[in-house]
Amino acid sequence: MNDSHAENMSLTELCEITVVSEDTIIEIVEHGIVDPQGREPESWLFDIHMLMTTQKAVRLYRDLEIDWSGIAFALSLLDELEQLREEKRCLAMRLSRFENNAS
Amino acid sequence: MEFKDYYKILGVDPEASNKEVKTAYRKLARKYHPDVSEHKDAGNKFKEVAEAYEVLKNTETRAEYDEVRQYGAQGQSFQPPPGWQSGNAEGSYSTANEDFSEFFSSLFRNANQQPDFDDVAGHRGGFQDWGGARTQRGQDIESDLPVFLEDTLKESTHPISFQIGDRKKTLKVKVPAGTGNGERIRLKGQGSPGPGGTASGDLYLRVRLVPHPLFDVEGHNLIVVLPLAPWEAVLGAKVEVPTLSGNLRLTIPANSQNGQRLRIKSKGLPNKRGERGDLYAVINVVVPAAADADTKALWKALGDESKFDPRAEWRNSK
């Protein structure tokens, strides 16, 4: 059974989980791809969403041969795309409730 | 074992230059990368493309593959040539190869170098510190966790089962109250076991709120379409409205319009602090499907009497 408490991790823990170096994570943070709590790398705290974003960024860097600014740009567009898809799904669902009433 | 035609997979000619191989890989990788693609088989497609590129991008492994290809491309079923041993071309095996096909392993199984991220990205030497913290661990597993809206009102427990290799694993997952759509839950060490007894990967669950037959979700607010008879909308009424936790009685003000939203405070979804969003009832005026003679007479009397012009706006805009 999992622990229901929100789980935050330090820079060292994030490096262990993502299997990348601290310098790489620092670069990812400097590009604004994730925005940890805390001011200095020693006090940074990453939540699970940031962990997933870091993993995605690392996969895209590795597999698509894009530099970090390209990754930052692609991730913000992907986020927007996901939001729009979700919004479209919700609106289609809501529209169908009106159309069902009309038929 | 099935023979893999890596040239066909990348859609390039066997005589293609390294540059052409790279371009073909980049195009297909962008198309099928599971983090980007909506293609239903994106994961497998990408794996195939990555495997082909892994072999063809390196002159030495490509030469080894070409040699095998001469031998094995004719048949559907493939066995490596007798006494075949990879020349162990240097530094060409990436982290991804644990996922590669049986065909790949049979050709290059003697290569037992450590995973090499730099090489996969083609950044050898240009990104020296990439793997500084590298340790081996098992693969992470990602999966969706469907959760009913009702379950988000308080902490809920969900039994899940999934496959790791040929083993079925069953777990109970606690979902805290106020968990929203798309949120992730990490179960440490519940992914695939690490190679050679190293740490297991993690299991990531992505919460998917199951579409409800009545309610739509908008942030922490819920929306329910409230059908009203024309006279209820005009005269006002008291009607029963469903919520996630039972019905309640809602007062409809007189002269309510179609599409108007009526707010029912704190009957939406909770957030992590226990505060609840609102429920909005959206008015949808519906007309009876068929009217008997008496009802028709009533509608007609209303029509004759009324000065209401529902298309006044059209006339004003002319």
CATH-defined superfamily of the largest domain in chain B = DnaJ domain
Q: Helical segment tally of chain B?
A: 9
Computed CA radius of gyration of chain A, to the nearest angstrom: 18 Å
Question: What is the CATH architecture annotation of the largest domain in chain B?
Answer: Orthogonal Bundle
Oligomeric state as shown: heterodimer
Question: Quick one: CATH class of the domain at 11-75 in chain A?
Answer: Mainly Alpha
Distance separating the two termini of chain B: 74 Å
Strand-residue proportion of chain B? 15-25%
Relative helix content of chain B: 25-40%
Reported CATH architecture of the domain at 11-75 in chain A: Orthogonal Bundle
H/E element order of chain A: HHHH
The poorly predicted ranges of chain A are: none
Radius of gyration of chain B: 31 Å
Strand order of the largest sheet of chain B: 6-7-11-10
Helical/strand content category of chain A: mainly alpha
State the helicity of chain A in percent bands.
55-70%
Count of helical segments of chain A? 4
| Uncertain segments of chain B | 88-97, 112-134
What can you see in these coordinates?
Chain A has helices at residues 11-18, 22-30, 48-64, 68-102. Chain A has 103 residues and is mostly helical. Chain A has a domain at 11-75: Multidrug-efflux Transporter Regulator, Chain: A, Domain 2. The longest helix of chain A has 35 residues, at 68-102. Chain A is elongated, with a radius of gyration of 18 Å. The termini of chain A are far apart. The mean pLDDT of chain A is 89. Chain B has 9 helices and 11 strands. In chain B, the strands form 4 sheets. Chain B has a 4-stranded mixed beta sheet with strand order 6-7-11-10. A 3-stranded mixed beta sheet of chain B has the order 1-5-4, with no helix packed on it. In chain B, strands 2-3 form a two-stranded antiparallel sheet. In chain B, strand 6 (215-218) and strand 7 (221-228) form a beta hairpin. In chain B, helix 2 (18-32) runs antiparallel to helix 3. Chain A binds chain B through residues 1-4, 6-7, 15-17, 19-24, 48-49, 51-52, 55-56, 59-65, 74, 78, 86, 90, 93-94, 97-98, 101-102, and chain B through 26, 29-30, 33, 35-36, 46, 50, 95, 117, 120-123, 129-135, 137, 140, 155, 157, 171-176, 181-187, 202, 204, 211, 216-218, 223, 225, 227, 272, 284, 286.
